[in-house]
Amino acid sequence: MKAQITIIIAVLFLGVFELNAQVKKAYTTSGGEMIFSFATIDNNGGESGNIMRWSPVFNFQNLINYDASNAVGFFSGLNIRNVGFIYDVPNTNIRKKFRNYTAGIPVGFKIGQLDKVFVYGGYEIEFPLNYKEKTFENEKKTDKFNVWFSKRVPSVYHTVMLGVNLPYGANIKFKYYLTSFFNKDFKETINGEVSKPYENIEANVFYFSLTFDLFKNTHYSGPMDSKDVKYSAMY
Question: Which residues is 109 bridged to in the sheet?
Fold first, then answer.
């Protein structure tokens, strides 16, 4: 199943770039993303303990933009993202850090002055690639591991986003993960005993991100205008 997902990502990625070669109005943009993430947590009815997580690396966004006019556009692409959250277990001295590297395929729209200020939104499906979990007790790291294509998390995350592209290339985005971070049915065996470590934890990640000059297309030409047009294009 994991191998099939990887193949699907590769096919879609190649298809997007084939579209770029065929459509004159389409252009590519890319850049990083500085993420400030949180999570809504319900652990057996307890909702406290969430700590902000800052992840400036490694977050790569690679987009295909299609501008139908100077005011309306669409985008898709392939993104690699480092996202997770930090959790202080209530009534203990234990801190947990969880993160996933994911591959995401967004589908969205842009509305506004595409060369100045505009809003954008859409949906993105993300496929977890590498899961990492760290445990600290009394500020000392006691456990750490990471797993490729881990069953501790779902095979797919469904997400929605909303953002604004400001003058001079600044970009602010809000994103919410509709899918719970953990796979509640995951089982592990320790000392012969089988347990479900995430069975009672409901955690949905959300984040705010900041980028600069991330989606800027500096040489745009197409059927709408025979002249080159300067676009500060986002996603």
Answer: 74, 121
- Tens digits of per-residue pLDDT, 141-162? 999 999 999 999 999 999 999 9
Q: Kindly state the tokens that stand for 218.
A: 């500096």
User: In the structure encoding, which two tokens stand for residue 231, read together?
Assistant: 């676009």
CA 149 to chain centre: 17
Which domain covers residue 30, as residue numbers?
2-231
Maximum CA pair distance of the chain? Answer: 71
- The answer to whether the CB of 7 falls within 8 A of the CB of 157 is no
Euclidean distance between CA atoms 213 and 34, whole angstroms = 13
Average pLDDT over all residues of the chain: 85
| 110, pLDDT greater than 50 | yes
pLDDT tens figures, 49-80: 899 999 998 999 999 999 999 899 999 999 99
- The count of domains in the chain is 1
CA pseudo-torsion sign 186, 134, 132, 79:
positive
- The whole-model pTM stands at 0.81
Residue bearing tokens 């499906």:
125
Q: CB under 8 Å to 219, separation ≥6 — which residues?
A: 228
Distance separating alpha carbons of residues 117 and 187, to the nearest angstrom: 48
Question: 48, exposed or middle or buried, with CB in 10 Å at 0-12, 13-18, 19+?
Answer: exposed
Q: What confidence score (pLDDT) does residue 114 get?
A: 87
Handedness of CA 50, 52, 57, 60 (dihedral sign): positive
